[in-house]
Amino acid sequence: MNQTSNYYNQHAQAFFENTYQVEMESLYAPFLRYLPEQALILDLGCGSGRDTLAFKKKGYQVEAIDYSAELVEKARELTGINVRQQSFYELNEVAKYDGVCVSGSVKMTPLVNIAVILDCSTC
Question: For the Methyltransferase domain, which residue ranges apply (predicted)?
Fold first, then answer.
């Protein structure tokens, strides 16, 4: 995980500039249609904060985490919320959320660990 975090810390500005304005509306719709109004969403691995901000603008309550300290700062600046620097392996409160957005974070995860992330039976 440190290798990935180091990469994003070193390239945070470029990553932010290349992602924060990408149009994702068509990808949000299938996710959001199953959530109640005012739902609490966790943006897991929020990166630039693009998705966090989009959900916030739609009236949802949003919490966000990312492992990269540099991207956490960028996401805080963009969204105005207290984005937490945290690994999703340390997350133990998934059950409180109405929805969890994992827009790009799972692709950076070794296949053997995806089952651990998605197994919320202990959350």
Answer: 41-110
Domains and CATH numbers, the chain: 2-11+35-118 (3.40.50.150)
The highest-confidence range among 29-38, 94-103, 114-123, by mean pLDDT, is 29-38
Q: What is the DSSP letter of 11?
A: T
Handedness of CA 23, 95, 120, 8 (dihedral sign): positive
Write b or e for each residue in 5-15: b if 16 or more Cβ atoms lie within 10 A of its Cβ, otherwise e: beebbeebeeb
Q: How far is CA 100 from the centre of its chain?
A: 8
Residue 24 CA to residue 8 CA, distance in Å, equals: 21
Distance, in Å, from the CA atom of 59 to the CA atom of 66, rounded to the nearest integer, reads: 22
Which 8-state DSSP code applies to residue 20? Answer: T
